[in-house]
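As a warm-up, study this chain.
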Amino acid sequence: MSSYHSNGKLLITGEYTVLDGALSLALPAKFGQSLSITENSSDKISWKAINNEGNIWFTANYNLNDIEIDAEPSIIETDNEGAAKTLLTILKEAKKLNPHFLINSNGIEATTILEFPENWGLGSSSTLINNVASWAKINAFDLLWNSFSGSGYDIACAQNNSAITYQLKNKEPFIDKVNFNPIFKDQLFFIHLNKKQNSREGIKRYQKIAPSAEKKEAIKKINSLTSKVLKTTALNAFETIIEEHEDIIASLIQLKPVKEHFFKDFKGSIKSLGAWGGDFILATGEQTYVTSYFSVKGYNTILTYQEMIA
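Now compare it with the structure written out below.
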């Protein structure tokens, strides 16, 4: 048996603008996804996906030959046709990138285990893609871009165990490990907004609405803010940076910042992480106050920095 593991992700700076080359700060999460592969003689690929509660949420069986590049794809059996088609696309793209992938196999039993609720938006797709890429011995960024789209920062998080900066230059990812361990991290909290945001929809909005000239100016500012975040040693300075960041992105995508929209009376700073409108936000303040404030409003998934970040 062989096994693989990838970390989930959070984008602290550079949401949306990371697509156009902004220098962004990303943090791998403690939660991720594993993939185990067992060879057998079934002539099939039998796939089983297990959620964070230990329950099977998806199964699919494919003819092994259907993964061949020129094969007409078919799904023998599944309880989730949408997920089965997406997985088949990923496997076929992996085969295109490495024609030797599965060439000597007589059958596969694959099991994935997700370590976080799927609606958290920590990267159920990116962790899967990175695990499949490791299994197929291919470049995970190529597999992402051939299968879907996106900046690739989530793949970079999947492959790293500490904070990174991420930047696209001429469509090539540049990743640097950085020391981001703020002394005020006990005053940083991640709150889930009780819904999953479709990042592809958010990207479409950004690409449609944000003017090119504004994007260029925004990227310069985001680059500067990312650099400042890495040097910040005081919470109030960090709060000033993330509030300025929120204003820049709000102007680009023509949406109100999440604090202005939902949490005007919160006595601290709030920043969206990734596509606006769902998943996690970052909030600053004392733990008792932050927990009480959001719990009263019905947001009960509140994680400390140490609980969330790898």
